[in-house]
Amino acid sequence: MSMPAALAEVVSDFKAVNGQDKLQLLLEFANELPPLPADLEEAAMEPVPECQSPLFLHVDAQDRDHVRLYFSAPAEAPTTRGFAAILAAGLDEHPADTILAVPDDFYSELGLATLISPLRLRGISAMLARIKRRLR
Predict the structure, then answer these.
(1) Is 111 left (phi over 0), alpha (psi -120 to 50) or beta?
(2) What percent of the chain has pLDDT over 70?
(3) In 15-39, which positions are buried (b, 16+ CB within 10 angstroms) versus exposed (e)?
(4) Taking a C-beta distance cutoff of 8 angstroms, is the pair 65, 95 a contact?
(5) Where are the alpha helices (DSSP H) in the chain?
(6) For the chain, which ranges sit under pLDDT 70?
(7) CATH number of the domain at 5-33+43-135, please?
């Protein structure tokens, strides 16, 4: 599986825990979602309607060797925030070609399928698909 080291580390962290501890780890990621920079407003970001909760993203690919990813999700949506934080931690500041090489189903390696509904899991897939679409 082709993943940057930062994303592979996140996947490894999830593989190292079992059951409800995976949900706790997802919540920890949700709490670590970086805030938006002062010059970026949610209204200027792309919505991701496939997510169960409101989620907005912005892909800054002006420097294709150093892509910046920004996410906005309400605190009341910890699963969505957790998914966004995983992508931020694993892909932010990486080259466009590296991000484009990430398998579309990498999230299956997190082991959350038995704990989170397929509808919710579709959210992380949609986020990655939109990021890749912007980079193409």
Answers:
(1) left
(2) 99
(3) eeeeeeebbebbeebbeebeebeee
(4) yes
(5) 5-15, 20-31, 78-91, 96-100, 118-135
(6) 1
(7) 3.90.1010.10
Domain borders along the chain are 5-33+43-135
User: Is there a contact between 48 and 55 (Cβ–Cβ < 8 Å)?
Assistant: yes
E strand segments, 46-124: 46-47, 56-60, 68-72
DSSP letter assigned to residue 70: E
The rounded distance, in Å, linking the Cα atoms of 108 and 86 is 13
- Per-residue pLDDT reduced to its tens digit, 92-113: 999 999 999 999 999 999 999 9
Backbone φ and ψ of 48, nearest 5°:
-120, 85
Structure tokens at 53: 């909760």
Both structure tokens of 42: 């949610």
